[in-house]
Amino acid sequence: MATADDAMPSRLTEKPSWLISQTSMHAHRLLVDRLATAGSHGYHYRLLAALQEFGPASQARLGRRTGIDRSDVVAALNDLAGRGMVERAHDPADRRRNIITITPAGTAHFQRLDGILAVVQDDLLAPLSLAERQLLIGMLTRVLEHHNSK
Amino acid sequence: MATADDAMPSRLTEKPSWLISQTSMHAHRLLVDRLATAGSHGYHYRLLAALQEFGPASQARLGRRTGIDRSDVVAALNDLAGRGMVERAHDPADRRRNIITITPAGTAHFQRLDGILAVVQDDLLAPLSLAERQLLIGMLTRVLEHHNSK
DNA sequence: GGCCAACGTTGGCCCGGCCAACGGTAGCAA
DNA sequence: TTGCTACCGTTGGCCGGGCCAACGTTGGCC
Fold first, then answer.
1. Helices (H), chain B
2. Which nucleotides of chain D are near protein (any atom < 7 Å from a CB)?
3. CA separation, residue B146 to residues A26, A123, B17, B126 (Å)
4. Residue B3: what pLDDT?
5. Per the CB < 8 Å rule, is B9 touching A52?
6. Measured over all CA atoms, what is the biggest interatomic distance in chain B, rounded to whole angstroms?
7. Phi, psi of B46 (to 5 degrees)
8. CB-based contact A88:A98 (threshold 8 Å)
9. Which of B10, B80, B83, B104 is deepest in the core (most CB within 10 A)?
10. A127-145: buried (b, 16+ CB within 10 Å) or exposed (e) per residue?
11. Are A109 and A48 in contact (CB under 8 A)?
């Protein structure tokens, strides 16, 4: 009494937005679970990625880069700093800013997380061929560009 | 000082899971905003859709159909019932159950919401051709089936 | 008669996205 | 110089959505 009986409304399963959000939820769960295994949250990965790719930056800029709110950046960085993955220093040139630098430990941890992410993606898109994945990426990128630029 | 300077890390923008979650966020925001305009939340739409398509059902079954937790179903139904869109009745045949029935007002409201959703989808996938949209739907559906069945 | 399962309900947790407000600081212009 | 404006970090709070644990009630079944 808990199987064929409980079909989803097709009004939902037909809608692209529903499909996308469902897929997103799967991805999100896969990711969060495995990041948690590594003792990290989504914000941590994003911040470390930004630091890794662009080097030291102020908190505000990190927020802009990663799409994380200033206030949330504070908490996440507290966390990362407390675990020695990141260092806060006052900017001598502009005393409003904190300059955030990733430490070697942070870099190492980031690479671990990045490996996890790679596995998750592969898991997520398992049923798609390589060509299809690229198609998908292309379409989603176009959708995003459209909405970001307008 | 807030534009070219604040690029996203490619480590993120490259990942399908990131693209998907970003797209999902856009869709979600479009949807939530417009649903809020109509004074409804996501749960409301889902529940009304299930009732509309399958007719009266117990709360537990509604939860299974829509993927909403039993406990959250309670709250959402309280809301809908309070607005006269849904009626709770004790099931004479099984006194554990409440039988939920959609009212004419509920049906009308659902159709309003459904119209909103249609617009949102179109908005979301604007940059994609019809063929592409179907391709996208097909791929996402396959991905979801894969993860649901395993 | 007893045991287990399902039901509705309450209350709580977490994550992620957001906003308002504050004191401190920088920059620019009158 | 004095202001005004904008930015910065930080605190505290809100909401939506997905979950889980527990309880008392009720049914089904051995």
1. 10-13, 16-37, 42-54, 59-66, 70-82, 104-124, 130-149
2. 7-13, 16-22, 24-28
3. 11, 10, 16, 27
4. 47
5. yes
6. 68
7. -60, -45
8. yes
9. B80
10. ebeeebbebbbebbbebbe
11. yes
Cα pseudo-dihedral B110, B114, B117, B122, rounded to 10 = -170
| pLDDT on residue B5 | 66
For A24, half-sphere exposure in the C-beta direction (CA atoms, 13 angstrom radius) is 18
Whose CA is closest to B16, among A20, A39, A96, A52? A20
Cα–Cα dist A65/A131, whole Å: 30
In this structure, are residues B62 and B106 in contact, taking their beta carbons and an 8 Å threshold? no
A29 contact partners, CB below 8 Å, separation of at least 6:
none
Check whether residue B26 has its CB closer than 7 Å to nucleic acid strand C. Answer: no
- Tell how far CA A11 is from the center of its chain: 30
Six-digit token string for B42: 């996501």
Instruction: Report DSSP state, residue B93.
Output: T
pLDDT category at B39 given cuts 50, 70, 90 is confident
To the question of pTM greater than 0.85 for the whole model, the response is yes
- Characterize the bridge pairing of strands B57-58 and A57-58: unpaired
Are the beta carbons of B17 and A34 closer than 8 angstroms? no
Q: Tens digits of per-residue pLDDT, A5-57?
A: 677 888 777 788 788 888 888 888 888 888 888 888 899 999 999 999 999 99
Residue B48 with chain A: CB contacts under 8 Å: none
Radius of gyration of chain A from its Cα atoms, rounded to whole angstroms: 19
